[in-house]
Amino acid sequence: MKKILYLFFAAILIVLSACGSSDSGSASEQGIDTITFADAGWDSIKVHNSIAQTIIEEGYGYQTDVTSGSTAATFQGLRDGDINVYMEVWTDNIKEIYGEAMDTGDIEKLSTNFDDNTQGLYVPTYVIEGDPERGIEPLAPDLKTVEDLKKYPEVFEDPEDPGRGRIINAPSGWAVAEAIDAKFEAYGLEETMNNFMPGSDAAIVADLTDAYEAGRGWVGYYWSPTAVTAKYDLTLLEEPAYDEETWNETKATEFPPNDVVVAVHKDMPEQASEVVEFLKNYETSSELTEEALSYMDENDASAEEAANWWMKEHEDIWTSWVSEDIANKVKDAMQ
Asked: Which range is the signal sequence, renumbered to this chain (predicted)?
């Protein structure tokens, strides 16, 4: 009986050992089966995800996936390794946790996707200058700065609170919303203006579009590159020049320069070294990104469709990021 039990357990150990050897062999050969991207909710990150996913799937043979969530949740996912790639880390919007993640070695910055972006509180240009072609007189001709907004509650009237104005903040869960909150206090905007936090980027766009088409006053947070800033004539309201000490204390300056970087989890260089080498070369610009976003808007296209269009329009750019062999594989798959 003892001999039978011994043989039984020995057989189990052999099977488990074989399974373990098989798994480790697969891991050493490929390292990772599926590369997961972060989607924090805005269109440009979706487009860049799709461009990178196409190249990785068709050129390198990996499967890809996307995890959606707030900036905080997806960035934590990157640190934890649940997410492998983040195509748009707006570094100064999450300066503290980004710096911490870099210091602890949880993530690696591979490249700067683009650094020619702007963000802040915008108004339609007709609010300041009027629009003779549309028969719109200037609504606030002396409006120049964010602090000036408190003088014009009637121009940006809150439909739910007559007599007070309304400023559209960033969506709930976005790191930048806290900066807008701080600006409200620093500039005394709460004296006459309400701080309205929408549920999504789409809600901001819908609100702006309605106001713009009607020629009404509107003010809110937005950024470039986006389809919105490409489509509409908007003016970024002025703030004092960026000063790090003032920004850290009150946020009463313009937004800091913002490198939008491609970052990966610390294990990616070992898990998919060839993909990491590709991502080290990934570099675009606000103008190039806005082209894809404008295509989305004008053609009611998905991020995937816009990415495919962009890659065909700018084959010279993305093929410079990879070897000729990989580029040919991707081009063949896209035909």
From this structure: 1-20
